[in-house]
Amino acid sequence: MKKKVLFVCTHNSARSQMAEGILRAVYGDRYDVYSAGTKSTGVNKYAVKVMREIGIDISSHTSKKVEELKGIEFDVVVTVCDSAKESCPYIPGAKRYVHKSFKDPSSATGDEEEILETFRKVRDEIKSWIVEEFSN
């Protein structure tokens, strides 16, 4: 039986979307993976681009609010930003809560290449953490 994991961030646009895609790609045989936000704003185009660079397609992902996943009992709820940790609603049935804050790549400035570099750095940090956290 696969464990259900929910990644939560404020807007469900970048960090939680990348985490969902990475966990599904790396350990999808062990986990059913979801992501949601305390708000919903759409999936960031730079997140889609940098994920595609490592062979993970999140272009069909949609931005969702946590309330849209009501009724699913999660084994693990992971907040990936401090704001989400503070405002994450109580999720009934969640067996374990984990908090791991990653820098918001959406706040990156500069030209397109500089913005992509910021997204790549956060993507790689998320991937390293997921491999370490979910490997057992």
From TrEMBL:
Record key words, sorted: Arsenical resistance
Keyword Signal part of the UniProt annotation: no
Domain Phosphotyrosine protein phosphatase I: 3-136
Biological processes per GO annotation: response to arsenic-containing substance
Protein name according to UniProt: Arsenate reductase
